[in-house]
Specification:
alpha/beta, Rossmann fold, Arc Repressor Mutant, subunit A, 5-stranded parallel sheet, 7 strands
Length: 222
Amino acid sequence: MNKISVFIVEDEPIVLEVNIGFLEKMDEFSLIGMSTSGKDALEKIKKLKPKLVLLDMFLPDISGLDVLVQLRTERIPSDIIMITAARDAGTIQEVMRLGAIDYLVKPFRFQRFQQSLQNYCKMVGKIESLQMLNQEDIDKWLGNSENGIDLPKGLNEFTMKQILLGLGSAEPPITAEQLGQNLGMARVTVRKYLDFLAGKDKVQIELQYGNVGRPTKYYSLK
């Protein structure tokens, strides 16, 4: 497989430098362009048609969300990983509905960046190696079977993906209540998904004991 072409949209010079440095550590990818504003990014992306765009949400002229909408409207064949400080559930849901393949919350570590791009690289390799995909392949591509997890009745794929994205973007470990606040979900709902993931050995639980009462559960991805 040829190197995957990447275009970075980021208006903060330090963050841009960090993202470029992260990308240069990954041999499967090649940076073909960058921009510090939304309108300039749209022009260059339409011309260069990168395979992958790392797109900041907050830009000086138009928002990254506006850029994403325009790219989708014009059917530009670029996949999007959104990079932003926005953590509200409404924004995350909107971005996911528009087809972003991942959502990285600033500040993030190289391990999370690497995980996101490696997963994308595997997906691209799988799709390019096959003319026809079976249901399992499609589920993995769409994120409908995270790490091979079959969801029981009462748990849905969309919420599970939000939980996993939120957990991966948070500073670990985190409580169900904290994650619920980040995602705009009820603590009880979040805990149900987290405990299910822990039972599947996808999430690690740490117990912290206070002076009184039950211990507090802290969750992190394995």
